[in-house]
Design a protein that fits this description.
This protein has a single domain (about 5-125), classed as DksA, coiled-coil domain (Four Helix Bundle (Hemerythrin (Met), subunit A), Up-down Bundle). The chain is an all-alpha fold. It is globular and about 60 Å long. Helices cover about 65% and strands about 0% of the residues. Helix 1 packs antiparallel against helix 3 (about 50-85) and helix 2 crosses helix 3.
């Protein structure tokens, strides 16, 4: 059985979540528009003057923005769990999530075993 988080660990993880939230939320987020353009141009090998490439660039930019919005939502939910004292408990088995897992993924909802089962179930549905 894993030990619950101590106050120092909880504070450290809160600070990491807040740092990541600030990084994503600042204008341009972690990847500015010019950086996104570079990624798009690396991914696409079409001529820059083609309208289809501009549409692809917009679609990729929107997808990246969606990923950032999803990550912000996960961070906000984790911060809310910290405030409600539910942070660090697996949503499936209610056991403490190991500190090492939370250190690697501060917004984690599940312990490693439950996350593996969850991902396996998702793969079966796909």
């Amino acid at each position: 059985m894993n030990a619950p988080l101590d106050p120092g660990q909880r504070a450290e993880l809160r600070a990491e979540l807040e740092r990541r939230r600030e990084q994503i939320a600042r204008p341009g987020g972690p990847m500015s528009a010019p950086e996104r353009t570079v990624v798009v141009h690396e991914v696409l090998s079409q001529d820059a003057d083609e309208p289809s490439q501009r549409e692809d660039e917009r679609a990729i930019g929107q997808a990246l923005g969606g990923i950032e919005r999803a990550e912000l939502a996960e961070i906000d939910a984790a911060l809310a769990r910290i405030d409600a004292d539910g942070y660090g408990l697996c949503i499936d088995c209610d056991n403490p999530i190991p500190y090492a897992r939370l250190k690697a993924e501060p917004a984690a909802l599940r312990c490693v075993a439950c996350e593996a089962r969850h991902e396996q179930a998702l793969r079966r549905l796909a």
